[in-house]
Amino acid sequence: MSAPSIPRVHFTELSARERAKALLEAGTFRELLGPFERIESPHLSPQGVVPQSDDGVVVARGTIDGSPAVILAIEAAFQGGGIGEVSGAKIAGALELALGDAEAGTPVRPVLVLETGGIRLQEANLGLLAIAEVHAAIIALRRYVPVVGVIAGPLGCFGGMSIAAGLCSYLIMTREGRLGLNGPAVIEEEAGVAELDSRDNRRVWDIMGGEQRVAVGMADTLTEDDPDSVARAVREAFAAGLPERHRSAKVERYETRLGVIDSSQELDGQKLRSIWAEERR
Amino acid sequence: MSRGSTWFAALTGVKPAGFEPASVLCADAKVGDERARFLSVVPNSEARFPRARGGELGLEEGWAIAWYVREVMSDDEGDRRAIIAVVDVPGQPYGYHEELLGLNLALAASVNAYAGARLAGHPVIALVVGRAISGAFLAHGLQANRILALRDEDVEVQVMSKRSTARITRRSVDELDKIAREVPATAFDVGSFARLGALHHLIEGVNADEPGDADVERVRDALAGAISSARQDATDLSSRLESPEARENRSASLRVREKLAEQWNQ
Known about the structure:
The complex is a heterodimer. Chain A has 10 helices and 7 strands. Chain A has helices at residues 16-23, 85-103, 124-141, 160-167, 184-191, 201-208, 210-215, 227-240, 251-259, 269-280, and strands at 30-32, 57-64, 67-74, 109-113, 148-151, 170-173, 221-222. By secondary structure, chain B is α/β, with parallel strands linked by helices. The chains are: A alpha/beta, B alpha/beta.
C-alpha cells in the first residue's frame, strides 16, 4: 500500500482570484470592485461579446509579510486576458492610489500577476490609452516601492503589458511562463512560418520561456509552479528593496549587449546565453 | 522621404542623415524662444535588424531613444528642455531575433526614459504626423504630457494594422469600418482618436506631406503652446482624463477610478 498522495496544487491552474489569495497572507484578501458590483465593459455587448462582471481583472488588498499590499491579477480565461477600458482602468487606477499612499509616506506593496495577450481588440485605443497609464503609474510608483511582476503562464505576457513587465522592479517567472512583445501566433501571421513556427513549442519557449528570460537577465527569479514557491519569491522580492537601477534604465548595458550581436547569424536561446555571459566578463 | 523625416527636417533645419542608428533622428532646435530636443523614428533600408527597416520601432530604436532622452536629462539642471517626439511609426517589428533579444525591454526603455523626463519636469510633447500604431506609439509618444496631431487622412492611431485586425478578429475590412463608426476606439482616423480626449490639440489645415513655411510655423506655434501648457500643469497624465471628450467617451475609466478610491481604505 502506498501512502495517499497529496495532490500538488499548481499556481498556473489557479484563477486570477485564487492567485491573488495565494499571494496575500491568509485571511487578509479583500477584493475591490468585485464581481457583484458588476462594473463590466460597456463596449463588448454591442460587438456581440458577452461581458464579464469583473472585466477579467481582480484588484485585491491584503498584506504581504505584515505590510499592506495590492494585487492586480489578470484572468487569462476571459478574452485571453485582453486589456480593455475597465480592466485597464482597474490596474492603472489601483497603481495610482498606491502612488498616492507612497507619496504620503505609507507605501503599499504592488504586485502585478500578468497573464495577457495584450490589448483587447474590441476596445482598441481605449486599451492602448489605459496601458500607457499603467506604464506611467509603474514608473512613478517604483521610485518609492518595488513593483513586482509575476508571469506564471500558461498564457504568458504579451503586447503592451509585456512593456509593463519590462518596467517592473522585479520579475518572477515559472518555466511555463512566457514573455514577449509579440505572441508567437502574431509573428507567424505577420512574418511567416519561416520566421517562427508558432506550434514549435520548444523553439517558442527557447526564446521567451521563463527559464531563458531569467538566464539572460530579462527576468529575475525562476520559481516552481506552486503557490507557496511563487508567494515566497514575491516576499523575497520586496525584502530585497528597490534595485540600484531598474532594468529598463540600464541603457549602456543593453546597448553593449546588442552591439555584440551579429544580426546576420542565426541565434538561439543557448547561444545568446553564452554570448552575453562572455560580454559580462 | 517619410513624414517623420520631413517634419524632423522642417522643424529642426537638420538633414535627416548621418545618425547612428540611422533610424533615430535627434537634434536640438528652437521652439519660440527656447531650445527643444526633437526625436523621430524613420525607415532605414540598411538597418542591422531586417524586420525593422520600414520605420518600425525595434530593438535599436527603443534603446537609442532612451539614450537621447537621458542625455537631455543629465545635461539640464536648471531649465528643463522640452522633448518633442515626432511620431510616424507603423508599429513594432515582428521577428524571431527581436523577441529573443528582448523587444519588450527595448520598448520599456524608451517608455521609461520619456516618463522619467516628464516626471523630472521636462515638457514631453508628442507630435503625430503619420501613423501611431500600437507598441511603437506606447514607446514613442504616449508618455507625453501633451499629444498634438495633424488633421490629415493619413494620420492614424490604432493598436494593429487594419489588415491584421481583420484577420485576427475574422472580420472583413468593410465590417471593421462599420464597427468603427459606432465604436470610435476601434477607428483608425485621428478625428475618432480625438474623441477619446487624450489629444491636447488637433492641428488643422496643414500640408502633412510637403509642408510649406506657413505650415511649419503653424506647427511650431502649436508646439510652443503645448510646451507652455505642460510647464504649468502636473507631471502626470491626468489631463487626458480631465478633458470634456474623456468625460464623455472614457466615462468607465473615470467611474472605475472613483469606485476604487472609495473602496481603497475600508
